[in-house]
Amino acid sequence: MTDYVLIHGAFHGSWCWTRVRRLLASKGHRVFTPTLTGLGERSHLLSREVSLGTHIADVTNLMTWEELRDIVLVGHSYGGFVVRHVADQMSDRIRSLIYLDAFVPDNGKALFDYVPDKGNKFRALAATNGDGWKLPPPPASFLAVNAADADWVDRQCTMQPLSTFEVPAQISGACDEVPDIGYIRARGYDSPYFDGFYALARERRWWREEFACGHDVMLDMPNELTTLLLQRG
């Protein structure tokens, strides 16, 4: 039996992992899919005080209080920022670290440092539609979500604190000592910066995989993703 900890990306919640969670659980594994503070069913906790640090603590506290060790830790999209910090603080508890079409931040770099306009469009959107401190979710079509799930994803996604994209990463490098690290690229989602992280994974000699689907791999190809996760467990 393996313990899996699956971290969603921005605007999402535990709900996006439902299919993969059920598939892994059906094989006898324990699966934890925490919703980060202020998102999904925890959107009632959204406030200016919610930060990247809050989301990192959501996961490290889960691992501490559930006494999780030898886990497979997966971070999707923005969740790459979260799991990289978690692995940096708790590398001894992680068997496999997987970036799923995710950001892989260097020390001192914020998420906005990786997007083309350094986040100016996001800040403008927050100013006009989020009281200056929160971001409305992009449409599912922007994420290239499959047509059958698009309306559902649009209903499920919630606001994201702008500050989570602005805080620089604080990485010591211990995260790269995890024995098994991989990067999965969703080829149906056009993103130069995720292409860059995929290339970085090769430079660092991490294993790599590609899926022919949109950004939300866990929704578009849950069976194939589960098969890969089982191989790392």
Keywords:
single chain, 233 residues, alpha/beta, Rossmann fold, 6-stranded parallel sheet, two-stranded antiparallel sheet, 8 helices, 16% strand, globular, hydrolase activity, AB_hydrolase_fold
Q: Output the CATH class name.
A: Alpha Beta
Order of helices and strands: EHEHEHEHEHEEHEHH
Give the name of the CATH superfamily.
Alpha/Beta hydrolase fold, catalytic domain
Strand content: 15-25%
* Cα shape: globular
Mean of all residue-level pLDDT scores: 97
In the CATH classification, which architecture applies?
3-Layer(aba) Sandwich
Main beta sheet, described?
A: 6 strands, parallel
Fraction of residues in H or I helices: 25-40%
What is the fold-level CATH name, i.e. the topology?
Rossmann fold
Count of helices? 8
Distance between the termini: 8 Å
Low-confidence runs (pLDDT<50, min 5 residues)? none
Sequence of strands across the biggest β-sheet: 2-1-3-4-7-8
**Category from helices, strands and their pairing:** alpha/beta
- CA radius of gyration is 16 Å
Tally of strands: 8
Organism: Bradyrhizobium brasilense
GO molecular function: hydrolase activity
Protein name: Alpha/beta fold hydrolase
Pfam families: Abhydrolase_6
